[in-house]
Amino acid sequence: MIPAEMDAWVVARPGPIATGPLERVRLPVPQPGPGEVLVEVEACAVCRTDLHLTEGELPPHRPRTVPGHQVVGRIVACGEGRTGLAPGSRVGVAWLRWTCGQCRYCHRGAENLCPWSTYTGWDADGGYADYLTAVANYVYPLPDDVPAERLAPLLCAGIIGHRALLRSDLPPGGRLGIYGFGSSAHLTAQVALWMGATVYVMTRSEKARALATELGATWVGGATDTPPEPLDSAILFAPVGELVPVALAALDRGGTLAVAGIHLSDIPSLNYDAHLFRERSLRSVTANTRADGREFLEIAAARPPRVATVAYPFDAADQALRDLAGDRVEGSAVLSTFSSL
Ligand SMILES: [Zn+2]
Ligand SMILES: [Zn+2]
């Protein structure tokens, strides 16, 4: 039985997290439209993008939207048309909600750049709720036998981290520098290590440095420390523009820096010789394609990463975001709707 109403959180007044931008509300359970499915949420992991949306660093696309785009749940209803998915299937709902499929970017396999793309928890209500709708062609099938809280962080932290790793052009057996070590970084580091990389982690959090060492990083240091060897590739996970020149200066000749985040504070002026010359590259990462998502979830199924999670009851979503803002989350914060945690 699907109830008429559900519990949800909405971004009521975008602003600093201390001002209480999130509001706990009752909403009607949404109806799946044509080609959509209705998903009952088991768990939703918290992404830094949720914080950017809540604090207004990313402008709202519509008022009072439910955030959350790392959702594990079960399909409980299908809209009109063929969805190819049966009620009862376990699926993941991620950030990329829909793309046009017609534009020059979609045609060349770069649907992440589609100007008409829409996003879960930004253009449509997300997973800080008991139910959400998703476009059937954009959900990922998930295994039944893995706890929801271990799967949820894979859906953005994992997938976007994977795209960032691809964008960083890490050579086989190369040296990878990771700046910032939260939810996405700790998953990406494990994939890089399996690929035979040597991993260097720069982060201000002592707990995160301990986790990095535990996971197999060769060297850990403070946020702006210089790694002991020049890097072939680096990924900037911290949303801190001041770290761009720091990371570029740490690159070897021909090295690449990928900026993983959707939001970055301003980058200070660069010096061509110190930061870019000798064919160093600076790249951004914009969302992901479904192919990236499928590829990462296959890797994660073949070699399940250790997922460091901090569990929050559904009622404590605002606390989870406050803790993320205050750097108090080690790994991934996960909201659980059910008592599976
Ligand atoms: Zn398109
Ligand atoms: Zn995200």
Automatic annotation (TrEMBL):
<dbReference type="InterPro" id="IPR013149">
    <property type="entry name" value="ADH-like_C"/>
</dbReference>
<dbReference type="InterPro" id="IPR011032">
    <property type="entry name" value="GroES-like_sf"/>
</dbReference>
<protein>
    <recommendedName>
        <fullName>Probable alcohol dehydrogenase AdhA</fullName>
        <ecNumber>1.1.1.1</ecNumber>
    </recommendedName>
</protein>
<dbReference type="GO" id="GO:0005737">
    <property type="term" value="C:cytoplasm"/>
</dbReference>
<keyword id="KW-0560">Oxidoreductase</keyword>
<keyword id="KW-0479">Metal-binding</keyword>
<dbReference type="InterPro" id="IPR020843">
    <property type="entry name" value="ER"/>
</dbReference>
<dbReference type="InterPro" id="IPR013154">
    <property type="entry name" value="ADH-like_N"/>
</dbReference>
<feature type="domain" description="Enoyl reductase (ER)">
    <location>
        <begin position="20"/>
        <end position="335"/>
    </location>
</feature>
<comment type="similarity">
    <text>Belongs to the zinc-containing alcohol dehydrogenase family.</text>
</comment>
<dbReference type="InterPro" id="IPR014187">
    <property type="entry name" value="ADH_Zn_typ-2"/>
</dbReference>
<dbReference type="GO" id="GO:0046872">
    <property type="term" value="F:metal ion binding"/>
</dbReference>
<keyword id="KW-0520">NAD</keyword>
<dbReference type="Pfam" id="PF00107">
    <property type="entry name" value="ADH_zinc_N"/>
</dbReference>
<dbReference type="Pfam" id="PF08240">
    <property type="entry name" value="ADH_N"/>
</dbReference>
<dbReference type="GO" id="GO:0004022">
    <property type="term" value="F:alcohol dehydrogenase (NAD+) activity"/>
</dbReference>
<dbReference type="InterPro" id="IPR036291">
    <property type="entry name" value="NAD(P)-bd_dom_sf"/>
</dbReference>
<keyword id="KW-0862">Zinc</keyword>
